[in-house]
């Protein structure tokens, strides 16, 4: 079942080590078929160099495993909450990519310091707070709900990325390939922003007109946040 989507998710997962976003098994990609009501995700704890397309795990939208010899990724419940809350996304990525994870561990969102950031993400990339107390009882589900809460006043399509404090980044897109692309962009932007602050600790975000111009030029007339 869903063999084509398994192949897509397998290839997207293999892009994570290809772009230097993961070490060992520290990451996962999924994609959803909303018409069929299933999503496909990487299996938990399987080394990337041993992964095969047929190893991908098929889940329903209640979080039940439908097909697959392995357990689904430990972050599956987070992916599911994002699919439920963000209707226009088709793929989700989670990694521990070093620069984005460093911002997450520092508990800071990433300001927009330049055009590379502005071309892909509108304004600051937020850092969601860390879970507390009993919230850890349903860790992965509540991580997803916390991301959704963080985007209550933000356009998830204009900022397809979030940092989870003391954990790491999640990105999304209209499909798995775009979600991986956004994960690569996030890591590069996180690296540049950290170095920018090292070079000039007084640095300020890029002028709003520059941010608007670059985001608008790439995403079209209705792209400005809040002007749709
Ligand atoms: O955040 C974590 C663990 O801290 C997970 O993302 C793992 O790094 C990947 O887990 P699997 O996808 O292999 O279950």
From TrEMBL:
Keyword Transcription regulation: no
The protein's required cofactors: Zn(2+)
UniProt EC number: 5.1.3.4
Top-level lineage group: Bacteria
Classification via SMART domains: Aldolase_II
Enzyme class: isomerase
Record GO biological process: arabinose catabolic process
GO cellular component: cytosol
Swiss-Prot/TrEMBL keywords: Arabinose catabolism, Carbohydrate metabolism, Isomerase, Metal-binding, Zinc
Record's catalysed reaction(s): L-ribulose 5-phosphate = D-xylulose 5-phosphate
The Class II aldolase/adducin N-terminal domain, residue ranges: 7-194
MF annotations from Gene Ontology: aldehyde-lyase activity; L-ribulose-phosphate 4-epimerase activity; metal ion binding
Pathway: Carbohydrate degradation; L-arabinose degradation via L-ribulose; D-xylulose 5-phosphate from L-arabinose (bacterial route): step 3/3
The protein's role, per its UniProt record: Involved in the degradation of L-arabinose. Catalyzes the interconversion of L-ribulose 5-phosphate (LRu5P) and D-xylulose 5-phosphate (D-Xu5P) via a retroaldol/aldol mechanism (carbon-carbon bond cleavage analogous to a class II aldolase reaction).
Entries under PANTHER family matching the protein: FUCULOSE PHOSPHATE ALDOLASE, L-RIBULOSE-5-PHOSPHATE 4-EPIMERASE SGBE
Family: Belongs to the aldolase class II family. AraD/FucA subfamily.
Protein name: L-ribulose-5-phosphate 4-epimerase
